[in-house]
UniProtKB/TrEMBL annotation, chain A:
Taxonomic source organism: Candidula unifasciata
Keywords: Activator, Nucleus, Transcription, Transcription regulation
Function: Component of the Mediator complex, a coactivator involved in the regulated transcription of nearly all RNA polymerase II-dependent genes. Mediator functions as a bridge to convey information from gene-specific regulatory proteins to the basal RNA polymerase II transcription machinery. Mediator is recruited to promoters by direct interactions with regulatory proteins and serves as a scaffold for the assembly of a functional preinitiation complex with RNA polymerase II and the general transcription factors.
GO MF entries: transcription coactivator activity
Main location: nucleus
Cell compartments where the protein resides: Nucleus
Stored InterPro entries: Mediator_Med20
Protein name: Mediator of RNA polymerase II transcription subunit 20
Pfam families tied to this protein: Med20
BP-aspect Gene Ontology terms: regulation of transcription by RNA polymerase II
Any one Gene Ontology cellular component term annotated for this protein: mediator complex
From TrEMBL, chain B:
Keywords: Activator, Nucleus, Transcription, Transcription regulation
Localization: Nucleus
This protein's record includes keyword Lipoprotein: no
GO biological process: regulation of transcription by RNA polymerase II; termination of RNA polymerase II transcription
Protein name from the UniProt record: Mediator of RNA polymerase II transcription subunit 18
Record's function text: Component of the Mediator complex, a coactivator involved in the regulated transcription of nearly all RNA polymerase II-dependent genes. Mediator functions as a bridge to convey information from gene-specific regulatory proteins to the basal RNA polymerase II transcription machinery. Mediator is recruited to promoters by direct interactions with regulatory proteins and serves as a scaffold for the assembly of a functional preinitiation complex with RNA polymerase II and the general transcription factors.
GO CC, any one term: core mediator complex
Length: 200, 216
């Protein structure tokens, strides 16, 4: 586990998402990255019924942590639990209801490039394409502030100016340690996948 | 890749049921029962396996009209091992108990155990749950095949949120004895096995299916 950040990559007009993903992948391979499988991140959203004040709960799955799921409340509280947590949610269906059509997922290929892990995924909301996300992880270090220069150097050759400044999650944190209160997986992915931040 | 395929498939785990028999034994006779169980259960050569857990019961009520909310509440039990502080916390959901007819030997209820991170109590409070009651259980644990036997005592917390031994007050003068199996639905053979096992503990302890609604 190292320091990772997620970026949204714009799809230029006249090109399809699949084409852009393909170009990015080829670029990573040209840089010396080798494909090490696929990855999958999804987020389901539940909304409270009759609770005052109303609450929203997101549940994230990440193929890097196949036996876990991450529950995030709109207040920022986070819980790491077994994947069975989703079965607990079905017992709460009178109080927390799944927001139909709000399932968002990011799927794609995972690459290893020396000390970096790169994931290029196309994001879809309820099955329709929404954009492209790129996750880059620098594995050997957990001091967030020390890694940005390294990440930036790699990212600029891949996505250019999009990686000009570090994501806000990375700025706030000194240590990228995974704690129950703030699991690393959530802090990087929620920002990009929760519904409020979606590209239109 | 395998990992990617695993995540969605794990969501579809068959619902689990808990088959349960309960009884009690006076504190003074507990040791006799422990030795009997040690002889009957697996790992007889080992010492007794003790456990000490803190359990908090959380309730989430629908804040609609009072009458409806009586029926519409969900209870989660959060457990934390006091003797293994690095072990994960657990959320346990227990469904409505079904007694069934005479041909069914045990109580059956839906059961869901989910391990989670140690901030679960704060998280449930954020979700809208409120703590209903909490207690500490201390006792011993045995297993025979997939059957689990626990002999434990319930302790009340004199001051809230303090689980040190000076703050615990034992409830009653007896230990609870539970024989349970968690398995997928529809395995009626388990009831038969449990009944046979319970027979071997007579007359020390009578394990029966109790209707919790009558006690409340």
């Amino acid at each position: 586990m190292g320091v990772s950040c997620v970026f949204s990559y714009p799809v230029p007009e006249g090109r399809s998402g699949a084409q852009v993903v393909d170009i990015l992948q080829k670029q990573v391979e040209t840089m010396g990255g080798s494909k090490t499988g696929t990855f999958y991140v999804d987020c389901e959203t539940y909304q409270s019924v009759m609770l005052n004040p109303p609450k929203t709960l997101h549940i994230l799955h990440n193929s890097e942590y196949p036996a876990s799921c991450f529950a995030i409340l709109d207040s920022g509280a986070t819980l790491v639990a077994d994947t069975l947590f989703i079965a607990l949610m079905s017992n709460l269906k009178n109080i927390y209801q799944a927001w139909k059509g709000a399932k968002i997922e990011s799927k794609g290929n995972r690459f290893q490039l020396a000390d970096f892990i790169l994931k290029i995924g196309s994001v879809s909301l309820a099955g329709s394409f929404k954009g492209i996300l790129l996750e880059v992880e620098y594995c050997p270090c957990i001091v967030a502030s020390e890694c940005w220069a390294m990440l930036k150097e790699l990212l600029q050759s891949l996505i250019g100016n999009i990686a000009e400044s570090p994501p806000s999650a990375l700025k706030k944190k000194k240590w990228m340690k995974s704690t129950p209160q703030q699991p690393q997986c959530c802090s990087t992915w929620t920002i990009s996948t929760t519904l409020g931040k979606l590209p239109p | 890749m395998e990992a990617a395929a695993l995540a969605p498939s794990l969501k579809n785990i068959a619902p689990q049921q808990e088959y349960l028999l309960q009884g009690s034994i006076l504190d003074t006779h507990r040791d006799v029962l422990l030795h009997r169980l040690r002889g009957l259960c697996d790992n007889a050569e080992r010492n007794f396996e003790a456990f000490s857990d803190y359990e908090a019961v959380y309730v989430l009520r629908n804040s609609s009209t009072a009458q409806q909310s009586q029926n519409q509440h969900v209870t989660f039990r959060v457990r934390h091992a006091l003797d293994h502080s690095d072990a994960p916390d657990h959320i346990r959901y227990l469904g409505q108990a079904e007694l069934g007819d005479r041909s069914r030997h045990t109580l059956v209820r839906a059961c869901l155990d989910v391990a989670c991170s140690s901030n679960v109590r704060d998280f449930l409070t954020e979700m809208g749950f409120r703590i209903d009651h909490d207690y500490v259980v201390k006792g011993h644990f045995f297993h025979k095949g997939r059957m689990k036997v626990t002999v434990y005592k319930i302790f009340r917390l004199i001051q809230p949120n303090k689980t040190d031994p000076h703050n615990l007050e034992p409830l009653g003068q007896s230990h609870l004895v539970e024989l349970s199996v968690v398995a997928p639905l529809g395995q009626e053979q388990i009831g038969e096995d449990m009944k046979n096992f319970a027979e071997q503990l007579k007359p020390l302890v009578l394990l029966e299916k109790f209707d919790h609604r009558k006690i409340q």
